[in-house]
Specification:
The chain is α/β, with parallel strands linked by helices. It has 5 domains: about 150 residues, no CATH class; about 150 residues, Rossmann fold, CATH 3.40.50; about 70 residues; about 170 residues, P-loop containing nucleotide triphosphate hydrolases (Rossmann fold), CATH 3.40.50.300; about 80 residues, Orthogonal Bundle (Helicase, Ruva Protein, domain 3), CATH 1.10.8.60. A 6-stranded mixed sheet has the order 3-5-6-7-4-8. The chain has a 6-stranded mixed sheet with strand order 9-11-12-13-10-14, sandwiched between helices. Strands 1-2 form a two-stranded antiparallel ribbon. Strand 12, helix 24 and strand 13 form a beta-alpha-beta unit. The radius of gyration is 36 Å and the shape is elongated. About 35% of the residues are buried.
Length: about 650
């Protein structure tokens, strides 16, 4: 690199000397017999100046005019020579008039707007009385390029950024990168380069594939977020001109990232960029983008396959990876991670790798690292629930208990049954694990979800469907998609609360609203069926749900209002062992006709009343708390419910 810069400088110096010679002749200062140095042919052919001339098709006169402007920045003598040559000390700068009279093979078209010098912004024309007498100045980016310095144009620096290449690709992604590179290579000579579109949910893998393809082609890659695109037509045109020039100077392709963008809001700028750009373009998006004129080649990108993820875990863990087949199998079975996520999980546990007798500790640490992968993306979409409940916190009939345990078994053993035992090969539909928890408020639906999450050691996120559902057509599906896409890698348990907001009896389609309501329901069920984790719906009114929808849900658990026996058991378990109790009669408390959630509220409120009075929890405190709870839910206590709670 240093040798090339030295040779490039020699070539530039020789070229400037030739232009200086022409200025000196115009100024009458030429020394007879003295010739400017000439660059060696091999230096000239590889110099930045020659590459620029070839890339933009500069004539000899246009090249010398550009050098005339460059000399003003690089050599102090050029300013005085320009003034003398023009016979005006007030003009110590190049003008087109000076170039026409001093340089060889002049032609008027060199300064027209569509000629290379101005079309590609190689020079700038300053203000002046006439075009030919206006100051000319070399563009700063071009000056740095001629000097052998590659630096992104300042006008682009805040919009695009270099994208480094990925260190490793899964085999399937490497094949996609090679196909992408072949597509761009074969189309290089066509009049209109096709845009390449990488579709899918895995943003990191799409970027890695694009970077690998560019590496094969010897291209650098720069990233542009679609939200950063100028919306103004003239500003977008200026950006495209600057980028196309930059792509030539640094031999680069552009990656237009539409994954996180508001594609509808930016539809027009995105379409114009795809249609008008003249350099290699790769677009990443969740869905396919239609274009009217420019051909688009589509590639679908998914996360690495199960065997590939297993291989990536082994390689990332190094030598110890061969010794942990069961640990890796468990991780691959639950989490669907791409290469960067797997490498990050292993990097965060480097201190554990290689230590003796700590395979369980390493396994637990890697598991927690995988859980953390989805959290940043889920933070703005759902409420994370701290799953602290255990089986002792649930009082349910035996059938419901068995169903909950079956749900846990399905999540734990899904890879063994689907992949190793071949059930996935029988068809891809219905492989997602979904459940419906139906019952009145306070009967334990959320607690059951917490128990499942704790038993599986997975994150639990609550999504309020009433907030997700939108009156605008298409918005509900977008909201649901963001949730599922964000949760996919981390294998989180999704708890969709208030399913009644979306589900209902399948009605006759009378208008577009009814039709779209059915589309929203179908989309949610489709994503639940494909989701690698567990998705749970809750409803207070199971009877309001269409039986056709219920058939697509794998588990249905009915949470009934607890009877007196069940309420007594809930009261026995509701107080922590550290809570001081005095005279608390669970059989009398069980006469109070309330659900488990209300029982928890009464018990906690009574504990606060007792703590404030510096007393143990008694039936008196529980009665006062029960009255407060009944007032809150607007259900007055009956005499039979509280009879005998306290002595008269």
């Amino acid at each position: 690199m240093q040798d090339w810069q030295k040779l490039n400088q020699q070539s530039l110096t020789a070229a400037l000397a030739q232009v200086r010679k022409a200025l000196e002749q115009k100024a009458g200062q030429t020394e007879n017999g003295k010739k400017p140095p000439a660059a060696a042919e091999e230096i000239w052919e590889t110099s930045a100046l020659e590459q620029l001339c070839r890339s933009f098709g500069l004539s000899t006169f246009e090249r010398d005019l550009l050098l005339l402007c460059a000399g003003m920045e690089l050599e102090a003598s050029f300013a005085s020579l320009c003034a003398i040559a023009q016979g005006d000390p007030q003009k110590p700068y190049p003008t087109f008039s000076l170039a026409l009279s001093a340089l060889d093979a002049p032609h008027w078209s060199a300064l027209t707007p569509n000629a290379p010098l101005r079309r590609w912004r190689l020079i700038e024309v300053g203000g002046g009385a006439t075009l030919t007498q206006s100051p000319l100045r070399i563009d700063e980016r071009i000056l740095h390029y001629l000097a052998g310095v590659q630096q992104l144009d300042d006008r682009l620096a805040g919009i695009i950024e270099p994208l480094p290449e990925s260190s490793q690709l899964a085999p399937s992604h490497q094949r996609l990168a090679e196909q992408l590179a072949q597509t761009l290579s074969q189309a290089a000579g066509s009049e209109m380069l096709p845009a390449v579109l990488l579709c899918g949910e895995d943003v990191a893998s799409k970027r890695a594939i694009a970077a690998a393809a560019c590496k094969i082609l010897g291209l650098s890659l720069h990233l542009l977020q679609a939200d950063n695109l100028p919306s103004n037509t003239s500003e977008l045109g200026q950006f495209l001109r600057l980028w196309d020039r930059e792509a030539v100077l640094c031999n680069s392709a552009l990656l237009l990232d539409c994954d996180e963008a508001d594609v509808d809001r930016n539809a027009s700028p995105i379409a114009r960029l795809i249609e008008q750009i003249n350099s290699p373009l790769i677009v990443t998006a969740q869905d396919r983008i239609r274009q009217r004129q420019r051909p688009v080649v589509n590639f679908d990108v998914s996360k690495p396959t199960h065997p590939e993820q297993y291989m990536l875990w082994e390689e990332a863990l190094g030598a110890i990876g061969q010794e942990l087949p069961e640990v890796i199998e468990r991780l691959v079975g639950q989490f669907n991670l791409n290469t960067p996520a797997i490498q990050a999980a292993c990097a965060s546990n480097l201190g554990q790798i290689g230590l003796e007798d700590n395979s369980q500790t390493l396994s637990d640490s890697l598991w927690e690292a995988c859980r953390a992968q989805a959290r940043p993306r889920m933070a703005d979409l759902a409420q994370r629930i701290d799953a602290g409940a255990s089986w002792d916190d649930l009082v349910l009939p035996e059938m419901q208990f068995q169903t909950l345990q079956a749900i846990i078994a399905h999540v734990r053993q899904r890879v063994k049954v689907y992949e190793r035992w071949g059930f996935a090969g029988k068809g891809g539909r219905g492989l997602g694990i979904s459940a419906l928890f139906a019952g009145p408020s306070g009967t334990g639906k959320t607690t059951a979800a917490e128990v499942i999450a704790k038993q599986l050691n997975l994150d639990l996120y609550r999504i309020d469907l009433s907030a997700v559902v939108s009156k605008y057509i298409g918005e509900t599906e977008k909201n649901l998609r963001r949730v599922f896409d964000a949760a996919e890698g981390g294998g989180a348990i999704l708890l969709f609360d208030e399913a009644d907001a979306l589900f209902g009896k399948r009605s006759d389609v009378k208008d577009s609203h009814d039709r779209h309501a059915n589309i929203e329901v179908s989309y949610l069920l489709q994503r639940m069926e494909a989701y690698r984790g567990l998705a749970i719906l809750t409803t207070n009114l199971k009877g309001a749900l269409d039986s056709a929808f219920l058939r697509r849900i794998r588990f249905v658990v009915q949470f009934s209002f607890p009877d007196a026996t069940q309420r007594a058991e809930i009261w026995r378990r509701i107080f922590p062992k550290e809570t001081p109790l005095e005279g608390v009669d669970v059989n009398k408390l069980a006469k109070l006709s309330v659900a488990g959630g209300n029982i928890r509220n009464i018990a906690m409120n009574a504990a606060f009343l007792a703590a404030d009075a510096n007393e143990s929890v008694t039936m008196k405190h529980l009665l006062n708390a029960a009255r407060s709870e009944s007032a809150k839910v607007e259900k007055p206590l009956t005499d039979s419910e509280v009879k005998g709670w306290i002595s008269s």
